[in-house]
Design a protein that fits this description.
This protein has 8 helices and 2 strands, in the order E-E-H-H-H-H-H-H-H-H. It is mainly α.
């Protein structure tokens, strides 16, 4: 199996926010257009967007402070719970990130949110160095997204992530 060649950043899967894409090698979000991201942030009232931007800009401490305040105000907010687990992943606390994603997965099993959590869980596994578990999560996310007729960009993102995890597995064996 060969890995897909990405000729430009425009081929990278979208990162769910303007100016952000998913690096197909690391499977991590990256700022590819700072102006577009900051323009969208100026229009957004969602604290999760600002927290995500701080994480991507390399300010996990500030992100954690904003997250604590936002979670206090909205403790059950799905997006903030995802961001909390992502912050753990971004700061190298992989076990805690996986634990939080697995808790979320149990809560959203059988809903339209399940593939979202599967995708994030796969990323946490992948970055933690567990491509077997990552491939399983990405495969579930992909199958669920196809079954739910999700947006093509989401299906593409899951397919790229699954392909990358499988490539790492093949290369390791």
């Amino acid at each position: 199996m060969t890995t897909e060649t990405f000729s430009s950043i425009s081929d990278w899967p979208t990162g769910g926010f303007p100016g952000v894409r998913i690096n197909p090698d690391t499977l991590l979000p990256a700022i590819v257009n700072e102006e577009a991201m900051h323009s969208a942030l100026a229009e957004s009232a969602d604290p999760a967007d600002r927290i995500m931007a701080l994480m991507l800009e390399g300010h996990p401490g500030e992100a954690a402070e904003l997250l604590a305040e936002a979670r206090y105000n909205a403790p059950e907010c799905f997006n903030l719970r995802i961001i909390e687990a992502e912050l753990h992943r971004a700061t190298g606390r992989f076990d805690r990130a996986v634990e939080l994603f697995r808790q979320l997965l149990a809560e959203v099993h059988g809903t339209v949110r399940e593939p979202i959590v599967q995708q994030y869980l796969g990323r946490a596994y992948f970055v933690a160095g567990n491509p077997v578990a990552a491939a399983e999560s990405f495969n579930k996310a992909l199958n669920l997204r196809v079954a739910q007729a999700a947006d093509a960009s989401l299906i593409y993102s899951s397919a790229v992530a699954l392909q990358r995890a499988r490539y790492v597995l093949e290369f390791a064996s």
